[in-house]
Amino acid sequence: MGTPVDAEQAWKDLQRIRVPQERVYDEFERSASGGRGMAYGTAALMWVFLAGVGLDLPGWGVGLFMAAYVGLLSVLIVMNSRRNRMQLHHTRYPGRTWAAFGATAVLVGGTIVLVDLLTELLEPIYAGPIQATVAVAVYLLSLGPVNRWAVDAVRSGGNPTADQEAGR
Predict the structure, then answer these.
(1) Which 3-state string (H, E, C) describes the chain?
(2) Cα–Cα distance between 131 and 125 in angstroms, integer?
(3) Percentage with pLDDT > 90 across the chain
(4) In b/e form, how buried is each residue of 87-103, taking b as 16+ CB within 10 angstroms?
(5) 111: CB partners within 8 A, 6+ apart
(6) pLDDT-based confidence at 56, cuts 50/70/90?
(7) How many CB atoms lie within 10 A of CB 42?
């Protein structure tokens, strides 16, 4: 280390690099959730689908309902992806993103099965909306914490954050 290093200049250089990077991660956090419209739109579609399937439709009706659900959900996803200004390359998504997706799917799916067992004795006209309401409530309640947990891994680059290292 024959070259002298000015600590103050090094700190300024680090801040000059770090601040734009933090802004990028802030923007990603805002765009990752899709906003309230995406969450409520997905929840509304899920509610209509689950309430409709709970009505004991014939096989072709369930197939038609499922095709309509997948189509409308795809339209919602495409509209949201076109609106977002920022997207990460697929290699930048950490394992937490996929774990969050899988955990939410298992949680909501388990809720659907559990509520279906509990409402088995009710008429389908009542059981479907109850099942749909409980599943959508679980989905909406889990969405915020799961998204924050998954996006935090992108910000930290997979490394523990300062708060995690300090045990907070």
Answers:
(1) CCCCCCHHHHHHHHHHHHHHHHHHHHHHHHHHCCHHHHHHHHHHHHHHHHHHHCCCCCHHHHHHHHHHHHHHHHHHHHHHHHHCCCCCCHHHCCHHHHHHHHHHHHHHHHHHHHHHHHCCCCCHHHHHHHHHHHHHHHHHHHHHHHHHHHHHHHHHCCCCCHHHHCCC
(2) 11
(3) 17
(4) eeeeeeebebbeebeee
(5) 134, 135, 138
(6) confident
(7) 20
pTM of the model: 0.67
- 158 sits in the region (left: phi over 0; alpha: psi -120 to 50; else beta) called left
Q: How far apart are alpha carbons 24 and 65 in whole angstroms?
A: 40
Averaged pLDDT for residues 104-122: 89
Q: What is d(CA 8, CA 127) in angstroms, rounded to the nearest whole number?
A: 66
